[in-house]
Amino acid sequence: MEILDGKKISEQIKEEIAQEVSAMKERGEKVPHLAAVLVGNDGASLTYVGSKVRSCEKIGFESTLVSLPDTTTEEELLVKIKELNEDASIDGFIVQLPLPKHIDEQKVLMAIDPDKDVDGFHPTNFGKMALELETFIPATPFGILELLKRYNVETSGKNTVVIGRSHIVGRPMSILMSRKGFPGDSTVTLTHSRTKDLKAFTKDADIVITALGSPDFLKADMVKDGVVIIDVGITRVPDETKPKGYRITGDVDFEEVAPKASYITPVPGGVGPMTIAMLLKNTLLARERHNAK
Ligand code: GUN
């Protein structure tokens, strides 16, 4: 069993990006600039956005945090997005999800200029991804591909089962694993809450990608020997023994499943850190693409 060490690989990727930024500076070029929009004060979102902004600073990017109150109207948010679209100093930006219930998420995502949509959530970018055209691949799926690539995990001709059909992880992951090339060329089954007899699918899978948000859901009797496990779950489970009063738990019962796996991502330290690294990668790509125009 080998651990797919997302923490280590994400550090490598950030180091590679930092070197590229230094080279840009030496050439007298503008460095990448990422903006993040946060509406309201959801605990997890605050943590994620804070960590995105800090990572930008570490690797030499410029960053802007746009923090709006949870009383912000949809119209006000759309005005802010228009400003960011038109601000030539900003290469890419994200609107942290989830948004407060009174705001139409799809409408907001569609207002983002696809050339600045470093989350890859705009229908134009999502469509390009499905058609194997140049685009921004959503950061979490992009991070998973990069992990599989750097550990040289065989995906061609394998049975890949994705659990969960979210727009951010499950759905794009199912498309990406079936694309031509490496990582890809998998035979993909996208399972979800209405799937009957999930175990029949996971037992037959060479690769299982879980994006459910259900702690310790995947058990040893649900997978076969030699399976590759990618755990995208990050649920805060109350735990009084921890300083923060909670611990982060994945979708996979790691203790049980790891001995059967050929490769497995831990939680924390697996997919999570890769997400931020790939958001930074997309921002670098945005800068380079704007330069090339
Ligand atoms: N909420 C959870 N994951 C993400 C992400 O990758 N991007 C944004 N914008 N919001 C999220």
Automatic annotation (TrEMBL):
InterPro entries: Aminoacid_DH-like_N_sf (IPR046346), NAD(P)-bd_dom_sf (IPR036291), THF_DH/CycHdrlase (IPR000672), THF_DH/CycHdrlase_cat_dom (IPR020630), THF_DH/CycHdrlase_CS (IPR020867), THF_DH/CycHdrlase_NAD-bd_dom (IPR020631). Its EC number is 1.5.1.5, 3.5.4.9. Pathway: One-carbon metabolism; tetrahydrofolate interconversion. Residues 4-119 form the Tetrahydrofolate dehydrogenase/cyclohydrolase catalytic domain. NADP(+) binds at residues 164-166, 234. Belongs to the tetrahydrofolate dehydrogenase/cyclohydrolase family. This is Bifunctional protein FolD. It comes from Neptunitalea lumnitzerae.
